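Weekly modeling sync, notes
Attendees: S.R. (lead), two postdocs, one rotation student

Agenda item 3: backlog of single-chain predictions. S.R. asked that every request posted to the team notebook include the full sequence so nobody has to chase files. The rotation student volunteered to paste the first one in as an example of the format we agreed on. Action items at the bottom.

Example entry:
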Amino acid sequence: MRASQTPAALRRLPKSVFERLSRIELMVFDVDGVMTDGKLHFGVNGEALKVFNVLDGAGIKALSASGIVVAVLSGRESPITLRRCAELGIRHVVQGVADKGAAFDAMRHELGKTADVCGYMGDDEIDVPVMRRVGFAATVPNAADGVAEFAHWVSRREGGAGAVREVCDLLTMTRSMTAEQTSRA
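Predicted structure, as returned to the notebook:
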């Protein structure tokens, strides 16, 4: 792919971020505040409702189709999250964890991945231990104070409003571009 054909989103990236993206084999997402807007709506019977973005779902499916394993790691237990993950074909879902760093390490070991080939997108202090471990850390512009300093990249869109799609698109474009460069070598 010539420079003139490189998508604008990739041209804006620092080379170091592109290199990090090109190594990713496992992308893990937080749920509340990343895959959703972080708001919890409660029905009259106490059931919690969450809103997921369809664009994010399409991005996750494309990411999976590109060969990158997608996983979810959430501090909150929710049957709604399980349902959404099932719809998207996400098989690796860990919920209800207080120590996301330990849960992430267990997940990546189970999947046979080193931390440097893993990416993570989170938005709160509980996500920072994972963000510090991974090869590519992402967050949203409406993340809790101080979280962005641990991210290699911040989405333009907020959580629940297409932020996941942005990172999925970057990863799939990077993978495609890297594969093309490899085939020409």
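Discussion: group reviewed the output briefly. The helical segments are 8-11, 15-22, 54-65, 79-88, 100-110, 128-133, 163-184.
Action items: rotation student to repeat for the remaining queue; S.R. to check formatting next week.
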